[in-house]
Fold each of these.
Amino acid sequence: MLDLDTVRTHPRRVQEALRAKGTGSPDLVDTLLEVDETRRRAITELQEAQARQNDLSQQIGTLKREGKDAEAEAIIEQTSALKETIKRLEDEVQAAEEKQEALVLKLPNLPHPSVPVGTDEDDNEVEETFGEKPAFDFEPAPHWDLAARHALVDLERGAKVTGSGFPFYLGKGARLQRALLNFFLDRARERGYTEMQAPLFVNPESAKGTGQLPDKDDLMYDIPRDDFYPIPTAEVPVTNFHRDEILSADDLPRQYCTYSPCWRREAGSYGADVRGLNRLHQFDKVELVRIVHPDESYRALDELLADAESALDALGLPYRRLLMCTGDMGFTQAKVYDLEVWSAAQERWLEVSSVSNFEAFQARRMQIRYRPEPEAKPELVHTLNGSGLAFPRVLAALLENNQQPDGSIELPEALHPYTGFARIGRDE
RNA sequence: GGAGGGGUGACCGAGUGGUCGAAGGUGCUCGCCUGGAAAGCGAGUGUGCCGUUUUCGCGGUACCGAGGGUUCGAAUCCCUCCCCCUCCGCCA
């Protein structure tokens, strides 16, 4: 959510953001400012009426205490018209506030000046590529073939039991998942994150806080009977942990890491890119969340990026870093990097992490504030998050990139203490 | 799921219709005291919104879990919902 004051003072900047992100119409800003005008006028009128009412009520109280009931009655008679006025103005204010709230929620975050302007993924900037793509003197198999050959993943039975995109992992596949979980969490903890286990369902208020509602509601599954949403990312419960709180300056920064499954409806996805583990309805992820002082958030973004990248480095996977353009970044973000891992058999880059600075956009919705000095007015914090990392595509890349001529898979050394085995498909 | 108790400021905790944004305490800030500290003493210390103001600020209004209602007037009375605690039931 944007600050109304920003919209009032820099309407053109907001309109530019709407255009750059390709969301909503620029008229939104004008409509919003009109509603704001109406709202403020109504509030002023209402408060004047309330002041009169308070004054009269106080007089009545005084008169009654002095036993001057007749005089009190005379004043009470005057109040009935005022009562109606107040009722009417209250309704007006409420209507205007609701209208305004709905409009404000449609305004996306302003992109940071360093973000390239663009319309779609083709305009994202490849900032840097890391590691060497593996070369094979045989035809490398895609991960779904490798997973089937070694019985690591069973999508068919997952589809039977639940539906497509809900995999079973078994044997070394399951153990590898568990190894990734511990590997990522241990690394995050060593890098200064507090480990957390979060609820996997959230209420609508939380989904609104991080920006999944109202605009991205078809991303999530929902449980209408109890008014819950299975989380599409642990960002939602973890960031909402501090919702409606005023932290002291000493409490900042807060850094949390958590493992969770994530559920996404992925409505409208289809085609060859969804094969195997490329796109699932349920997947596992370690998420990193930072809540920081506003002056620190871009330094924190760099650190967060380094945290995510270091995990890929440790796994020896080739990857590249993309700076997302205005048209391809999300509604809530001010600046986003994507990390994409090289998938050697598919010969594609697969997104395994998205690292974002939301500045105060989420914090304003969630009312997460901090007090700069003991007696000072509270101010909004900045929030950031990044995957560290998403499992399925990491798994896909591990299988594809590390496959051997005999079809076995050599795992990177960093994982050995976690898996308890060094390879898949030999010495079994 | 059943029965009972309860949700008040950063925290604890008074307050059952008017002068209550709310006693008292703790914490915190500033000052006094001290060689320094503790203790003690004094003053201050909520948030949002609207208006006003070049700054400090000032005026108004709302907020005592949420939403509705009664009343000239609600933290206080009534209704609905949410959450927490205790006991019972069920259960990993």
Amino acid sequence: MSVAPGFQPVHRESTSALITRQLREGIMRGTLPAGTQLSEVSLAAEFGVSRGPLREAMQRLVQEGLVRSELNRGLFVKELDEAEIRDLYLTRTAIETAAARAVAHGETVTQSLERLRARATAMAEAAAAEDLQALADADFAFHEELVNLAGSPRLHRVHETLMVETRMCLTALQGTYFDPEDQVAEHSRIVEAIAAGDDAAMVREIEEHMQEALDRLVRATR
Amino acid sequence: MSVAPGFQPVHRESTSALITRQLREGIMRGTLPAGTQLSEVSLAAEFGVSRGPLREAMQRLVQEGLVRSELNRGLFVKELDEAEIRDLYLTRTAIETAAARAVAHGETVTQSLERLRARATAMAEAAAAEDLQALADADFAFHEELVNLAGSPRLHRVHETLMVETRMCLTALQGTYFDPEDQVAEHSRIVEAIAAGDDAAMVREIEEHMQEALDRLVRATR
DNA sequence: CCCGTGAAGATTGTCAACAATCCGGAGATA
DNA sequence: TATCTCCGGATTGTTGACAATCTTCACGGG
């Protein structure tokens, strides 16, 4: 039994982790809209578990900041007002600029750029096909890829939450029209700044991109 | 009842939140050293609660990344190897540079600078008195103040965890000697860069400070 | 008509018991 | 001697029941 046929260590997950993931997905997709109370009994019934594991999952989401807890009253999906959205994008900028710099100074810049370009291309194709859903997905995939390539577990964890919140915002305004070409161009500029290894340019492009995205959002909200 | 005598809305906290805070403190101070298993029964007994609330607190810490969960085996205080420490400082750099920029561009720069200068002065005094404990505390207070002044709930939340991890590292190497003057000088330079409103300088100073701190740590670890 | 009072219902917070899983060592077997 | 098997003890995972709290709504007094 000493041969190693490339097996991976079995990594099972605790039930609370599983439930957490599903709830997060629900919040993200808008199945659980902002402000809704998360009833323990009904959710537990839906998941087919007792309230114990479910409550543990809830506490995770509270810690993550996706859920707000009111003592003896219940848990509610966090609502995002304009100030919160600004803060969200401020933090995204912090994380993603750091990620970009890590990627640019990393060992495997060439491969990283290849993957980022692929993501940018996917966005361009979706824009050309006028498939807004695909465009949005490719957009998220780009930013997730950027942070993944940085190879930082902490940046990744924080960013994961931020992306859920971002998706929350966009889901709430589904159907709003954004100019696809602008978005595609902004992402390309980010990639090229990384390729050029120009730290200042990277930061500037990401900042501008976030500012644009934020403006689009705020404009659509009013 | 329309007069507003400056009362604050009562905000009580759930038991799990309270326990979480205490456990976090324990991890930070080294009462619960890295790697130790967190026994549910003994901890529950110590806190005088049942395992329910305690488990909820644990899940929070898992989500925060301070505790690692092994299924059916237990929960362990996360250990930080060199790669983790590097990642920690990378992320701190990301958060604190963003905070510094927010402070520099904020409405109340003057007041903010005042408070930061006060923190820097406290450090200098501790260094002059050769009180290493006070110096370390003042150091932490400076960085916490910096992020608080940014007024960003997200940056704050993330930073809180990072500071716990930082303290974990330092507690583990208690007794090691670092040159106080260097540390004091680095912090002063950060404040002055913010005062000058020079974004690039701010980023550079914080980056260098983090790099220095990281080097000190890694050197001490080996 | 308005406001304070009180009880019913529902929801969350907590607990102690039960089930499942894992780790260690004693003993048997080759 | 080395290895396999099995059992005991301990720890975690899960559950259902009980206690505490909050909300709602009807009722009665001013």
